[in-house]
């Protein structure tokens, strides 16, 4: 006799019944699946570390995330990076650098190289970012100068 409105625990026999498949799987098969997954993950990590050693780069493969490199590279392109050259950087070359506080390396094309254009002038910005008190003191001095300076 079948009651109307009764709730059964039987799930349909389909390919999407993952938990049912896991319940049917014996322990040996489960261990085998876990071991296979661990081998795939460890193989990927070994390949990644091997590429780091072979290329001399912390990030041997990067993905172009923006359209700023077009038409040479488009969004989604993979770049294979090496770090072998000791030659100076020239215009037109592709460079990759890391910014402190960001995990993703920045990829750009060199447009122009300035060899004698006020070296270390950017250190003021770096010091102001690293030492906020210095920034506020500098702003206070500049503000006082503007307020106290008399026009001649």
From TrEMBL:
Its EC number is 3.4.21.89. One of its GO terms (biological process) is signal peptide processing. Keywords: Endoplasmic reticulum, Hydrolase, Membrane, Protease, Signal-anchor, Transmembrane, Transmembrane helix. It is a single-pass type II membrane protein. One of its GO terms (cellular component) is signal peptidase complex. It is an enzyme of class 3 (hydrolase). The keyword tRNA processing does not apply. It comes from the Eukaryota. It is found in: Endoplasmic reticulum membrane. Residues 54-112 form the Peptidase S24/S26A/S26B/S26C domain. One of its GO terms (molecular function) is signal peptidase activity. The chain crosses the membrane at residues 30-48, 131-148. Pfam families: Peptidase_S24. It catalyses: Cleavage of hydrophobic, N-terminal signal or leader sequences from secreted and periplasmic proteins. NCBIfam families: sigpep_I_arch. Belongs to the peptidase S26B family. Catalytic component of the signal peptidase complex (SPC) which catalyzes the cleavage of N-terminal signal sequences from nascent proteins as they are translocated into the lumen of the endoplasmic reticulum. Specifically cleaves N-terminal signal peptides that contain a hydrophobic alpha-helix (h-region) shorter than 18-20 amino acids. Component of the signal peptidase complex paralog C (SPC-C) composed of a catalytic subunit SEC11C and three accessory subunits SPCS1, SPCS2 and SPCS3. Within the complex, interacts with SPCS2 and SPCS3. The complex induces a local thinning of the ER membrane which is used to measure the length of the signal peptide (SP) h-region of protein substrates. This ensures the selectivity of the complex towards h-regions shorter than 18-20 amino acids. This is Signal peptidase complex catalytic subunit SEC11C. The lineage of its organism: Eukaryota, Metazoa, Chordata, Craniata, Vertebrata. The gene is SEC11C.
């Amino acid at each position: 006799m079948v009651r109307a409105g009764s709730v059964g625990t039987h799930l349909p026999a389909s390919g999407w019944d993952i938990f049912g498949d896991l319940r049917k799987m014996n322990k040996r098969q489960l261990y085998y699946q876990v071991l296979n997954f661990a081998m795939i993950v460890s193989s990927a990590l070994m390949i990644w570390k091997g590429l780091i050693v072979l290329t001399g780069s912390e990030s041997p493969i990067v993905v172009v995330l923006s359209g700023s490199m077009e038409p040479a590279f488009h969004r989604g392109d993979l770049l294979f990076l090496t770090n072998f050259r000791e030659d100076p950087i020239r215009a037109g070359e592709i460079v990759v650098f890391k910014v402190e506080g960001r995990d993703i390396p920045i990829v750009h094309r060199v447009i122009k190289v300035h060899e004698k254009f006020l070296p270390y002038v950017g250190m003021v910005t770096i010091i102001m970012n690293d030492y906020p008190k210095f920034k506020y003191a500098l702003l206070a001095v500049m503000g006082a100068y503007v307020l106290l300076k008399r026009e001649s």
